[in-house]
Amino acid sequence: MHNKFNKLSLAVTIASTALIASQVSASGFQVREQSAKTLANALSNAAAGAEDVSFMAYNPAAIGHIDGNQVAGGVAYIDADFELQDATASNGPIVYGVDQSGQGGETATVPSFAAKTQLNERFDLGLAIYAPYGLSTKYDEDWIGRYHAVETELKTIDFQPTLNYRATERLNLAVGLRAQYADATLSTANDLGTAAALDPDNPLNSLATPGKNDVIGEVTGDDWGYGYTLGALFQVTEKTRLGASYRSEIDLTLDGELDVRGTDPVSDAAIDLGAVTGTGGKAEITTPANLNLGIYHQLNDRLALMANAEWTEWSSFDELVVEFEDGRDPSRTEENWDDTWAFSVGANYALTPQWLLRAGLGVDESPVPSAEFRTPRVPDADRQWATLGATWMPSPALGITAGYMHVFADDGDIDQDGSKEENATKGSLNGTYEVEADVFALSVDYRF
Asked: Which residue range forms the structural domain that includes residue 171?
């Protein structure tokens, strides 16, 4: 059967977008909600706060600031809303929609756990389990941008055993190993109607209608990768502490399996006839390295001030190469993401010996350099945070913390050009994204 929309073109469409999303939450697809205490302070205490064992996820040397043994567990609930406004989509002479909108926000729950023990006067041993990256967006299957994305879900989990060395009474140095598991599920609609209508040799030619006979392709893939983290914590004076940490990049090879299904009798028939079939692909990707620098100062008995700067090496995501199981030429997609900085400040106020109030503000750069590189899977833009929270300590050994963050994101234009090679089967998509999110976090820590 001579069909322009065959299993190979479908494989390119799905595998390339799927593995992009696995590489593409914070800026990019980063997740920073590993502690309710850091969230409530807008992450301004990430590198230098060292308040409990959960801070090991940001700076492994934090466990050296905690004597004895401690466990901590927490959960963050993320409610994100993405809406593409005034959208226009087309593919050559085919117009899919004009001045429409599409909402793709999703919710996600992010758990975390950490524990440490003090081996002796010099060494501490810890383990942190947390999610450093993640993404969840879902649109209606008939939305205007369906040929670029329908559903995107990326989950990662890091297992981080950590060893801290108390070099002096003021200096802690730590190293941690990271074993990272990544799992992705992505789906995209494909315009079978246009391909069949333009192909006179296709037996479905007389039945097909452009933009009306879609095939949904869903790909899943997973892999393990390994890296490391380094940290230092220096107590300059009794009231001032400096922190620095580095988390390495991790290389992953995501293997994907593609499943297809029709949305109407015509697309179902195409699958039954074998004109559209699934296939597989793989891509080598890298989750980025990042660096945290912070300062914590106890101004007086009640008030503490803090600040943090975080650099993320998103420039490692400059191109995605997808290789196919059938041996055809690889698919290449240009990304050109930029390195980013995030800055935050915060304060703690001891209302009583049992209650500590928290607040913070932050700004975060987007790695997406321009509208042509913004996608519906990651409608990222520069953002600002405002946070607040409180810690209740019913005893010196037990702390319960609740935190809230609201994310204000700048509007982000999208300009996906249908003439680009990677958009040959997707067409053009233009509009403006409005993005905002709310995050709620709760954690408990216990020292023994």
From this structure: 7-447
